[in-house]
Structure formats: C-alpha cells, structure tokens
Amino acid sequence: MTEHISSVETIDVRFPTSRHRDGSDAMNPFPDYSAAYVMLRTSTDAEGHGLVFTVGRGTEIEVAAVRSLASMVVGQPVEELLRDPGALARRLVGDSQIRWLGPEKGVVHMAAGGIVNAVWDLAARRAGKPLWKLLADFTPEQLVAQVDFRYLRDALTQDEALDLLRTASAGRAEREQRLLADGYPAYTTTPGWLGYDDEKLARLCKEAVADGYDLIKLKVGANLADDVRRMAIARAAVGPNTRIAVDANQVWGVPDAIGWMGELADFNPYWIEEPTSPDDILGHAAVRRALAPIKVATGEHVHNAVMFKQLLQAGAVDVVQIDACRVGGVNENIAILLLAAKFSVPVCPHAGGVGLCELVQHLAMFDFVAVSGSLDGRAIEYVDHLHEHFTDPVRIKGGRYLAPTAPGMSAQIHAEALTAFHFPDGPQWSAVTEA
Amino acid sequence: MTEHISSVETIDVRFPTSRHRDGSDAMNPFPDYSAAYVMLRTSTDAEGHGLVFTVGRGTEIEVAAVRSLASMVVGQPVEELLRDPGALARRLVGDSQIRWLGPEKGVVHMAAGGIVNAVWDLAARRAGKPLWKLLADFTPEQLVAQVDFRYLRDALTQDEALDLLRTASAGRAEREQRLLADGYPAYTTTPGWLGYDDEKLARLCKEAVADGYDLIKLKVGANLADDVRRMAIARAAVGPNTRIAVDANQVWGVPDAIGWMGELADFNPYWIEEPTSPDDILGHAAVRRALAPIKVATGEHVHNAVMFKQLLQAGAVDVVQIDACRVGGVNENIAILLLAAKFSVPVCPHAGGVGLCELVQHLAMFDFVAVSGSLDGRAIEYVDHLHEHFTDPVRIKGGRYLAPTAPGMSAQIHAEALTAFHFPDGPQWSAVTEA
C-alpha cells in the first residue's frame, strides 16, 4: 500500500514561565509559554513535528483547530504531500467552510501553519537535510511554486519573484559556506523583560555584551518613568555602541506611540517594535514618519502575507519580523521573505517563546542563502528559555546562531517534556493544581 | 445572594443549506449556515441569547472558543455586567494569554462577540426594550463609554464622538417615529446565488422588484462569461431603475478585480462587494480609484474596528458593511458606526446566513436614530432563509425591515430547532449520517 499519513496527534503542552515572569511585557504580564504541538505519523512510522506557539490559556482552542484540520491530512499519500506542500497549504487555508473563521488569520490559520510546518519537517527529514538547506537547494521555479500569489500580484508577480530568486542563485554556494562557518547574527531579549528588577536588568545587559551581542531589546510601554530609568540603566550598562531596540507589544495608540517614544529618543533606541495594533498599517506608517530615524519593526502578530504586503507598500516598517508559527506555515513565510526582498526591507525574525528560535532560524538562513542574499541589518531574536526540551536545540556562539545540521525543522520536543508539561494532566501541572 | 451569571451554554447548530445551494458564491460553493449558539443564564433564570455565525465545518472550533471564554463570565454579578458591558468586552478581548490567538480577530474575537451580544440581549430584555431602542435611549456619554478608543484616536477621539452624538441627539424622537412608521430600507440577495440557474435568477429578480426592492445583489467571480450572461439577464429582468450590486466574495486579486469589473461595467453595477482579500486596505483603495463611479463595499470579513478605521482613512470604501457576529460584539460595532459617521460613509449591514438579519437590524436602526441620523444610501441586506427558527424573526414589508418591538436582540432560536439541527447528534444530521 502507498505510504500515507496515518495520524495527526496534537498535544496541549504548557511551561509555567509566568512563575518567574520570564517573557513579561506590557501586554503580556504573565505568559505561560505553550504550544499546540503537532505530530504527523506515516504508515511507515516516519514522523513530522510542528507546533503552534501560544502563551497559556486558549491553547485548548488551538488544539481543537488542529484536530479539525487534521481530517484533511490523514489518509493523504505522503509522496504527493511532499512533492507539493503548497497544494496542502492552499487546501487547509482555503477550505470553503472553515475559511469563514478567518479568513487566513487567527486560530485556524495558525493551526494550518502548524500542520504545514510538520509536513515540511517530514520532508526535510526524508531529504536528510535541515529545512534551511532543503529550501536553499530548491530551484527558483520550485520555490515560486510554493507561494499563493492570488492576493500579492499587485506588489509582487510570479515573474518578479523568479527574477529575484534567479539573481540570488549566483552566490548561493558561497553564502552557504559563510553560514556554515560563521553562523547567522542574533540579538537578545533576555535582559529586557518588564518583570525584571533594575539590578537584574543591568547585570543581564552587561552579560549580553560580554556574550558578543551588538543588539539587545528592552520591553517598554507600561510606565513612562520606569522606561526612562530602565533605558538609562541599559544604555549605561552596554555603552554607546551596542544597539538597544525597544518593544511596546501593542499597548499604544498612534499618538501615544509618538509621544512616548519622543521621551526615549535621547537614549538612541534602534527600533520601536509593535508600537500599536499589528493591524494598523497606516498607523505604523504614521509612527515611522514621526519617529525617523528610529526604525519601526513589527510582524510577530501580523497575521498573513496580505498584511505584510501592505506594511511594505505603505512604507510602514524598516524591519519585517516574521514568525514561524503565526502565518500559514513555511509556504506563506516564503511569500513574506520574497515580498521583503522585493522592497529591500531586512527581515529580523521574532523568536523566543517555546520553539520559535528553533523553527524560525531555518527561514532566516534560507533567506540569506537563496532569497535576499544579505545579512545587512539582519538578526534573529534569541531568548535563552526552554531550549533544553528540544531534540535539536539552537546553538548560539558569540552572539550568532550556528546553522543546524540535523535533518528537519528542529521542531521536535522530547517525549518526556511533552508528558511532564502536558496540560492539565502532566505532573508539572497536576502538582500545581493539587497544591 | 446577588444575581449572577450561572451558566454559559454553547451549542453547535447547523442547517443543511448546501443541499439546495442556498448561499452559494464564488468562495463558498456549499455553505451550511451554522452557529455557535450562546445562551447565558442567570441565578434568577433570566436569559441572554447570542450566536456566532459560521458556515459549517469548524463550528466546533468556535464552540470550543466560547467555552474557553465562558469562565470569564460565569459567576459575574449581573447588575455590574449590565451597567458596563464595555468592561466585559475589554476583559474578554484583552485577556493577556488568549489575546495571543488573535489579537482581536478570528475565532477568539468572534467568540467574545457572541458572549458580549448575549449580555446585550439580556440587558435589552431586562430593560423591556428592543436593543436598537435601548441604545438609542442612551446618552451620548453612555454610548461613548461603550467604546475602546485605544487604537482609534488618530481617526476619532472620544470628544469627536461625543460631539457627533450630541449633534444627532436633536432629531432622535422624530427619527424614531419615522422608523416605527416606515421601517428601514432593505436590499435582497435572494435572486443572486451563484448556484441558481438562469430561469430561477430571472424569476427571483422580477419577484424582488414586485416585492418593492430597489436594490438587489448578484454573486459574481466564478466565471466571467457566466457573469456577463447573468448580469444581462438580471438587468433585463429588473429594468434600468433598480440598482444591482455584485459580490465577488474575495476571489480576486487587485488587478483581476479591476479587469473583471471592467467587463461588467456596461450593466451599471451599483457596488462591487469584497473585490479582494478583506485584509487588503490599500488594495480596496486601488480598486476604488480604478472603478469609480462603481462603489466599493466590504465588511462582513473585516475583523475589527482598526481595520474599518483604515478602510475609511484610506478612502478605500464607499459602503461599510458591518456584521453583527464578526467583531467583538455590540460595543465594537458602536465604534465602527461612529467611525463611519465621522467619515460620512453609509453603513449597509451584511446579513443573511442564520440570524444575521435578526441581530444586525438593531445596529442599523440604532445608527439611524442616534448616530448617523440618515437613511441616504443605506439598506440592510435581506435573505429569506431560516427566519422561521427564531422566536422574534425579522419582518419585511415592501422592501423594508419593520422595527422589532420585542425586548432583546432578536437572537433567540426556538428550542426545537436547536435540538433538531444540533450537530452532529440532532435528528436532521444523524439521519444524513445513517443514510
């Protein structure tokens, strides 16, 4: 019998990060980094792993969505799926009834992305390559076939995408060697969580510089006086040559963003991230005009390629922050990377949480080797949490991500962690409930 | 003991409308009109009803989301909830963990809207008024207090909203009398479903004119030759004086929309609805510039007030189509009505499906009495499906909605229908499964 997908299992797994306020910001004071974990199995016992990152409550809704979409994958012939993951992505995103619940946004879109990513993990394992390398070895024609151009053509046609990828083909081999030798730049958010005290902030800032980072990020937006004090502490700790980005996690309206950032401008912030609603394209454009030369960054909550297209068309962002688990999976992220390259805007992926570093590094590295061909102004976010639970954790050295070499998308969580942190029945949670 | 919310029940109810292709369009060939039905009960056995409209598969995800949010409502004191539904809306939409799954969009936002609407239904029942009248009797200050202005201030401040409402206060009593006497204009989509044959199209077009409608709507976008033929049939059937709107349900990209509509321009279409992705604000603006004087309409899939704000700021729409069940409930729709009034753009609500006519008529009538104060260019969509299942169904006469007079938001479905069409266990579905 032809090999087919025999099961799609999904697991609600939550890590109690809020107990130490790791990950705390102005919008998310007490996140519990969590995931709707996705595991595909084939009839020959091959596996593909993916996950939808969440921050605690509501993960059960994401799990329900993955379960609903799973019926479109179970029973499918594996060879066909792996030959054309774009067709699966279009089918999951385009189901004429489920589409009503998006379209192409929120819970159902993220669930589709989790499944699509698990299929890509399976594809990369089967090819014996890390995902970044699998994609970087595709021809321009193969890559363009991954993208749904329906809503993108007014900004990027298939032919323009092909031209862009063909131009980038020239230096692929040389860039791959550079990547394997030197890794990919990282920046760190570890010092800047809002729930950390001043002493911890200063200490972590100094450690970041000592560890080789030239860009760190601080959370802002809860209290202006606190932000001024914390920026002063951070600037004093890192000196004038380390860039400090700040991140408001959407707490402001447009006029608030402009006013508040005016008060922080003396500390020379590198970018302001999520100054307002991620849906507010025109608002980001207004903030960018008002605050230049401070850069504007967003993306972790930008729900699809149509929104990224407009952020670029409107000149609303200096930095595109893709997220591996927000949009409809690898396919839609290829579209976003192509759009960013077309508009010559650098991509600095959102990461942290649980598994986001592991997954998104593949997309950034693929971008460097085969799409934008550049590291200028680029860095992948890095946060030192929860990597120990992954079978192929990220490796950081001297402020850089080393290129993963194991086959797959690095999404697999150790079985023991899935059991221990399973919500609400795993021992890490049932103990709390009983306490 | 203080009266409190004792339970939030949610029911997956689906009507097999796809069997006759009622509701068929280019994006939704076989919808089964459905709902995640929401019923609040208080400790004194008072009830509030709401629903989240869906089109079949995936309703179970919406049900899961309502269940997850329900814990934020159960146990709450009723008096406090009814005194400030805006606080509940902000709490449901702003939960710092669940917010990650939106924010303010898709499955979780619609679930919040379903619960908020059920609270408003309870409030209106308790006040002994239909919802439109309850809202129209609020002071400008009370109305403005319903709105979360955080992301809206660059387009509409609280003071501007107050001014606008105070100006509209003058004619409230007179407009209420007109509404009660004459009703509110309707338009009909009944003739134009894509799955209907030419004979049925012509017959239903003529019936619509005979029934008093001066605006009908046809679905387009699946096949250009078919659309040209169907537009010719419809135009011949209704004559030159009845307006014909067309609706592409998002199947086009921006260049396709402009090209395709060029081929239909000779038939004098009144508006083109959903020419492309509902997320594409700049795309709608480009389509509008290219196709004027054909109007551009959208809104049934526009996921929150931030998106409506930008559609208005960008001059992207001639017609704002609010939906009672897409955004975060009555509160967010008040914000959208205020934005539309500020930009002097008429609101023509999306309806049809199941219950959408029943719910949204209250918002349009409130808008006429207390916000925009106008009927110019305004009409509520009407489709003659499934009204028999409601305890307070819409009443249409001479192409107009008669104002509902029963207390509440008209959202209640008969208990027998909830049982019969419960998915997958109700007799209407188990019979199919067994066949």
What radius of gyration of chain A results from the CA coordinates? 21 Å
The major β-sheet of chain A equals: 9 strands, mixed
**What is the CATH first-level class name of the domain at 167-416 in chain A?**
Alpha Beta
| Shape descriptor of chain A | globular
Percent in strands of chain A: 5-15%
Kindly state the percentage of residues in helix of chain A.
Answer: 40-55%
**Biggest interface between protein chains, with counts per chain?**
A-B, 61 and 61 residues
Task: Tell me the series of helices and strands of chain A, N- to C-terminal.
Answer: EEEHHHHHHHHEHEHEHEHEHEHHEEEHH
* SS field, number of helical segments of chain A: 17
Give the quaternary arrangement of the chains: homodimer
Total E-strand runs of chain A: 12
Average pLDDT metric of chain A: 96
Supply the CATH architecture of the domain at 167-416 in chain A. Alpha-Beta Barrel
Q: What structural class do helix, strand and pairing data of chain A support?
A: alpha/beta
Measured distance between first and last alpha carbons of chain A: 51 Å
User: Any low-confidence stretches of chain A, pLDDT <50, length ≥5?
Assistant: none
